[in-house]
Amino acid sequence: MALLEVCTGSLQSVQHAVEGGAERIELCSALPLDGLTPSLGLMRQVRLQYPRLKVHVLIRPREGAFVYTPGEVRQMEYDISEALPYTDGIVVGALTSEGDIDLPVMEVLVKAAKGRPVTFHRAFDVCRDPVVALEQIISLGCRRLLSSGQAATAEQGISVLRRLSDLAGDRLIVMPGGGVNPVNAGRILTQTATTEIHGSCSGTDGITSTGKVSQVLAALRAIG
After folding, report:
1. Which of 12, 94, 171, 191 could be a cystine partner for 102, CB 3.0 to 4.6 Å?
2. How far apart are CA 90 and CA 132, in angstroms?
3. Backbone phi and psi for residue 13, each to the nearest 5 degrees, phi listed first
4. What's the rounded mean pLDDT across residues 35-41?
5. What is the mean pLDDT of residues 62-91?
């Protein structure tokens, strides 16, 4: 069955994701800001409470553009090193001011991950050339690409996501994310020919909903 990665921004959301059946989460903070690096305390507590849960930690030092100063890059390196004892993977992304993948910065950050699988996040969705960016991300050794297909939602970006998935082949996992819900999750996966999908499954309060996680997983089971 395809894998659901649940984006969680608090310990309560992690608890709800696990209760709903999630086997992997992206751990972050400040979801209304599209996610920032979670606190060390949150990372440690999640690992303590859920030792078998696969945890991928978002490294993003601030809101806004994905163009980082040397000081911010050093901060991200440090955050990665602090996260390593508590995470199974790192989620990160950096761009140049021209809208390309910042290869020198990403090389530093991938190296800092020390072999943990790296997901390049939705900074990709504002790249000026998605095909060139995809090949660069693959060349960096990233394991996954989280993307909405450069559209407002993954459902709207299905055609681009399918093209990216076809181009990547077995070199990288393209993971659709953005607006994923129990109604569209199965169609997004089927039409993009991908094997993983990403969603917050949140309720009106912004907290992950146990019911929505269960419903998305049921939709995935229905397509095999």
Report:
1. 94
2. 22
3. -65, -40
4. 98
5. 98
